[in-house]
Design brief:
This protein is mainly α. 64% of the residues lie in helices and 4% in strands. A 3-stranded antiparallel beta sheet has the order 1-2-3, covered by helices on one side. The longest helix is centred in the first third of the chain and has 25 residues, at 77-101. The protein is globular.
Length: 294
Amino acid sequence: MTDPMAVVFEQPGPWQRLAPLRQGFDAPLLLALMALTAAGLLAMYSAGYSHGTRFLDHGRNLLIAFTVMAVMAQVPPQRLLSAAPPLYALGVALLLAVALFGLTRKGATRWLNIGITVIQPSEIMKIAMPLMLAWWFQKREGQLRPLDFAVAGALLALPVGLILRQPDLGTALLVLASGLAVIFFAGLSWKLVLPPVLLALTGIALLVIFGDRWCAEGVRWPLLHAYQQQRVCTLLDPFADPLGKGFHVIQGMIAIGSGGWLGKGFMQGTQTHLEFIPERTTDFIFAVWAEEWG
């Protein structure tokens, strides 16, 4: 018989001690995220190492983001769901505050001065909106009725409408897409999904076909602001104003084309480093990547 006093208890290794912290992570998703982050760091270094503190700021923000992600991964989903209603209410209240006394910059009222800093409340809704709808459908699980989907649509329409009013079409579309995704996966019938999808595809096809006529001088589109119409028309035909509204898009296209299939190599992008690409550390970072990596 083995002497009980001789039994040696194996001490857990460092990897085993970290097991509770790893439980909140999906390994394939985390690896994909890290790969995308590494690619982004390479592109940002090439585009921004000589562009003030952009690269260092980007690295700092990534460290903060990964820290927040690691902390939030330890929060049980039930705890996150319980935080959805107050977070949603806070986001809507801040959006109303923006509408009443927000800061206006470049013709848009999107920011709110809270004393210690300036915030953009619409960013909160990118997280609060899908959480709120997930909370709502979880409460109604097993007894969903058409009225429940109508309430979800109203919960989604309120912040989207407030964001559109700022105006901020891009953020409004992101919040709308995140909310519609939750509503769809909650069990919305395809019979209700297909009509708006087909209508949107028809509208895009008509826009491409009649773009030249609808983008002619003096033609105004209902529901869209002038700058929004201008962006759509520039996307359709940037060469209509190559030295003005279409300049940025054309320079991005030249950079992507000059990289070819395999790219010019890391730090070898001439369009990037000769500063032909505008906003190369933000809006046109894809052009930087494509020129150097193909």
